[in-house]
Design goal:
This protein is about 10% helix and about 45% strand. With about 475 residues, it is mostly beta strands.
């Protein structure tokens, strides 16, 4: 199996003192308490403000135990995520007795890939490295290809389960599911490297280089879906998003990460609270005072994470406006509320959590990748020794090159237009048609993915490389 490639860059980040009480110092993360007046009452808000344009910071939701349906302590998630800052995430089934049934209720996107589908008001970190909040529905489109024949399906969800009685369900599972897919009365279609490799009713694992497409064994699926899928079919996958109100298509290909919760609190600097619009009808949430968590965007485009004690959602929204937020959204609250910045838990949750929104501190700054005009959020790179390293997979796709991982030699050969490049991880040389040439920085394998010096590879086949310093984005044209 060919191994994959990623890019990382190097940078520093810390916390800058802010508010009446400061917790650390640094240019990109500011933590403290702020006083606001709502309805004649002075309230204290604990906040963390983050400049996500810092190339050493990355925002993404992190799931408990790196899986779906479990819970884990806030402190544990923060520690293993190398967090500079963090806040509890979306609502989840906290009271389920089965420890593997505490599913999140909102959409989750990490590194451009759908971790959990949903329809929610959502905080989205965009390709321009600025956050936005909008009401979206997120899902996927799956197309199986047999020669000239195609069949397309829209799964009910991604990394979900609708119960043993829902025999008509169709679900897409990714490695982020983190568990065996053993649901009864269903057929599992295993996909590796975008090819169907197995069809079975037995329990299966989601392969690290693929997916599982599960269809319940209803008469409908047995007659209309399963006969159209065969081992050897190629599979095309497309993320599909639309505005949850207007139905207008939304380009999820420009998302770095996202988390869905709600309700919306603030739009354009004014209170914008509509429980019915955002799908909430629980009186406990709508009317009672409780501990609240929120995320927002201030006038400088910074992400703001905050918690408050003993307030209604209406008061939370008014407080967000008083803080100067242009946009804001409620998160899970009560015993779930948790907030962290640079070594200090500012708000301690009263229970384990299903998911946490984390601002990671990176050892090396990440680089974005654009290939032939298409932004590829699922493939990120890094800079090492003044050389940009990127995942080799999107380069191979753009080149249309043939390739082979040589297990015995531990190297990868790429053939295009009669030229062969052979890469060996951690070796400062490359074979070009069998002749050695020196490399300033060797290819490396990180988390099972192969990263290569981008300029050398692209220019070897006549491509062009451009660099955007503001976005830390490398753009390739072939």
């Amino acid at each position: 199996m060919m191994r994959k490639l990623l890019i990382l860059l190097c940078c520093t980040a810390g916390i800058l003192a802010a508010g009446q009480a400061a917790y650390a110092a640094g240019p990109s993360v500011q933590a403290g308490t702020e006083q606001v007046t709502v309805g004649g009452k002075t309230m204290t808000v604990t906040t963390v403000r983050v400049d996500l344009r810092d190339p050493l910071l990355a925002l993404e939701p992190v799931t408990a135990r790196s899986a779906i349906g479990y819970d884990e302590s806030f402190a544990s998630i923060v520690e293993r995520s190398q967090a500079a800052a963090a806040i509890n995430g979306t609502f989840f089934n906290a009271y389920e007795k089965a420890e593997d049934s505490r599913y999140p209720n909102g959409l989750l996107v990490a590194s451009g890939e759908t971790v959990h589908s949903g329809t929610n008001q959502s905080l989205i970190w965009m390709a321009d490295k600025l956050p936005v909040i909008r009401n979206v529905e997120l899902g996927i489109r799956v197309t199986f290809v047999q020669g000239k024949q195609t069949s397309t399906y829209f799964p009910w969800g991604v990394n979900k389960y609708y119960g043993d009685g829902q025999t008509d369900q169709v679900v897409w599972y990714t490695p982020a599911m983190g568990r065996i897919i053993d649901y009864p009365n269903s057929t599992k279609i295993v996909i590796r490297e975008n090819v169907v490799t197995r069809i079975t009713e037995e329990a299966v694992s989601v392969p690290g280089d693929g997916y599982v497409f599960m269809a319940g064994n209803s008469d409908n699926n047995r007659n209309n879906l399963l006969p159209r899928v065969q081992v050897g079919d190629t599979v095309d996958l497309e993320t599909v998003a639309k505005d949850a109100v207007s139905g207008e298509a939304v380009d999820a290909g420009m998302w770095l990460s996202a988390i869905g919760a709600g309700p919306k609190l603030v739009t354009g600097g004014a209170v914008d609270l509509d429980f019915a619009r955002d799908g909430f009808d629980d009186p406990k949430l709508m009317t009672q005072a409780n501990r609240r968590s929120f995320v927002g965007i201030d006038g400088e485009g910074r992400l703001v994470m905050g918690t408050m004690d003993g307030v209604t959602v209406q008061q939370e929204a008014e407080a967000a406006v008083a803080l100067g937020l242009r946009e804001a959204m409620n998160l899970d609250g009560g015993a779930s509320s948790g907030l962290y910045a640079e070594g200090t838990v500012l708000t301690q949750p009263g229970r384990d959590l299903s998911n946490v929104l984390v601002v990671r501190r990176l050892a090396e700054p990440r680089t974005q990748l654009e290939v032939n005009g298409r932004f590829r959020p699922e493939f990120q790179g890094f800079i090492r020794q003044d050389t940009t390293l990127v995942p080799i997979r999107p380069l191979l796709q753009a080149l249309g090159a043939e390739f082979k991982w040589n297990e015995a030699e531990g190297n990868l050969s790429v053939v295009k237009d009669g030229k062969t490049l052979t890469f060996t991880p951690d070796r400062r040389e490359i074979l070009v048609d069998g002749k050695k040439e020196a490399l300033d920085t060797p290819p490396v394998i990180v988390d099972g993915r192969l990263y290569v010096p981008v300029r050398y590879v692209v220019e070897s086949w006549g491509g062009k490389v451009e660099w955007d310093q503001n976005l830390y984005r490398v753009s390739l044209e072939f």
